[in-house]
Amino acid sequence: MLDRPNTKAGWLARAADLKIEARAFIDGAYVDAVSKRRFEKVSPIDGRVFAEVADCDAADIDLAVAAARRAFEKGEWRDAAPAHKKRVLLRFAELIREHIDELALLETLDVGKVIGNSLAVDVPFCADCIQYYAELADKLIDEVAPVGANDVALIRREPLGVIGAIVPWNYPLIIGAWKIGPALVAGNSVVLKPAEQSPLGAILLGGLAHQAGLPAGVLNVVPGFGERAGKPLALHPDVDMISFTGSTDVGKLMLRYSGESNMKRVSLECGGKSPHVVMADADIKAAAEAIAWGIYYNQGETCHAGSRVLVHSSVRARLVEAIAEVARAQIPLGHPFEAASQMGALVEKHHMERVLSYIALGEKEGAQIALGGKRVMAETGGFYIEPTILDGARNDMRIAQEEIFGPVVVVIPFEDEAEATRLANASIYGLGAAVWTADMNVAHRLTRAIKAGTVWVNTFDRSSMATPFGGFKQSGFGRDRSPHAVDKYMDFKTIWTAYR
Ligand code: NAD
Fold it and tell me: Is the CB of 176 under 6 A from ligand 1?
C-alpha cells in the first residue's frame, strides 16, 4: 500500500497517477454503456475534466435490473445463511477501509470536499454503516402472533426483490451505504444509480462488494444522468422499490413514476431548511460554534444543515458576530488537498452560480450580508464561495424558505417562544432542528412542538448509526440508519397453520 500523502502536492501527484474505473458495474463485471457513450467528469476543485464516465441509459438499466432479478430469483444471496451474509458484508466493510485513500481521493475529486473530511468521515462512515448492517444479519428475528391455541401464525420478514437506489452527490459514499447496507442484509438485489456529479466512489464500491463475496448481480452500479438513467430505473416494471435521496422536486417525481409504472414502494429522503432556535438564555458561544460548523461543514451541502437561524432579538447581534468569529478562526476555506482547509469547492459551476444568485436575492429581499457573500479562488478554475451570513431576514423571504444548499445561513429574529415555534414550523421541510436554551422546560416544549425527524437540544449534528435519520413533511418519509431502515426493504408475510 502506498504511503498516504500529507501535502497538497502529494495528493495532486496521487490524483495524477490514479487509474480510475469509470464504467458501470453490472452482473459482477465492469462494462461500458451499451451506447458506448461517456460523459466528461469535471472536478469542482479546478474545473478540469479528470475522468470519462459511462453515460448509461435505459438499455443499461434494463441489463442491471435483469441481472438483479436473476440473482434474486436464484436465491444465492437472498437465502444465504445469516452468518454467511454477515461474513460477506463484514469483509465488504474491511475492503472499504483498505481502500480508504483511493475512495477518499475519488470523493474529493468528484465533489470538492476537503480530503481530511473524506478520510475522517466519508469513507469511515461508509464502512461503519456496512458493518452495522452486517452485524444485524443474524438478529432479524421473525414473530409468532398470539392467535388461537391450535393455530400458529408466523409473521415472517421477506426481502422485496430488486431495489433501485438513487442517491445525491453531497455524501455519495455515506448515503450510498445507507441504502446498500440495509437493502443487502435484508436479502435484496440492488441497482445503485449515483448522481452524475459523484459516480466514482460508488463504481468502486460495486467491485469491492463483489470481491468480498457478494454474488454477481446482487449489487449493480449504473452511473448516468437523472433523466436518462434514474428515470428508467424508477419507471422500471421489474423494480420493487425505489429508495431515493435527493431534492424534494425530484422526490415528488419518484411518486409519479411509481404510480405510472408498477406501484413500486418509494422511500424519500429529501431537502431541508433546518432551523436553530436560539433563546435569550442560550449559551451563545456553544450555539455559534455549532451553527457555524453545521452550515459551513461540507460547504453547506448538507441536507439537514442548520441553514435557518431563529434567534431571540435580544441576542441576535451577539450571535451573528460569534458565528462569524468561528468561521474566521476555525473554518478556513482553501484547496481541498491542503491539510489546513476545512471548506472546499461547491460541487459544480451551475450550483455555485445558483448559491450566488440566492445571496444576491437575499440582499434584494432586504437581508444584509454580515459575512462573506462572494466567490473566491476563481483563478484556480474551481467553484468556491466564502462562508456567508445573511442577517436581518424574515421567515417569509425566499432565502428563508428555499434550500440554498451552500455555505449560507439566514438569520431571523423572534420575540417569544410562541413566535419561535411558529417560525420553526413555517417551512415545507421537516428534516432537522436544534433548540438552544438553558431552560429544559422550554427545550421540552420546543422538541415536542417542532415537526422534524431529528431535534437536537443544545447541540447539533451529532449522529450515530443507531439513530434513524429522515424527515417529516416534504423532507420525505422512510428512515435511513438504525435497525428501522431494514424494515422498509422487507415485507411481512403471514403464514397461518391450523393444527388439530
Ligand atoms: P437531485 O434531486 O437533483 O438528484 C438526486 C438524484 O436523483 C441524482 O442521482 C440524480 O441523477 C437523480 N435524478 C435527477 N432527476 C431525476 C429524474 N427525473 N428521475 C430519476 N432520477 C433523477 O439532488 P442533488 O442535487 O443530487 O442533491 C441535493 C439534494 O439532495 C438536496 O435537496 C438535499 O437536501 C437532498 N439530500 C437529502 C438528504 C436526506 O437524507 N434527506 C441527504 C442528502 C441530500
Answer: no
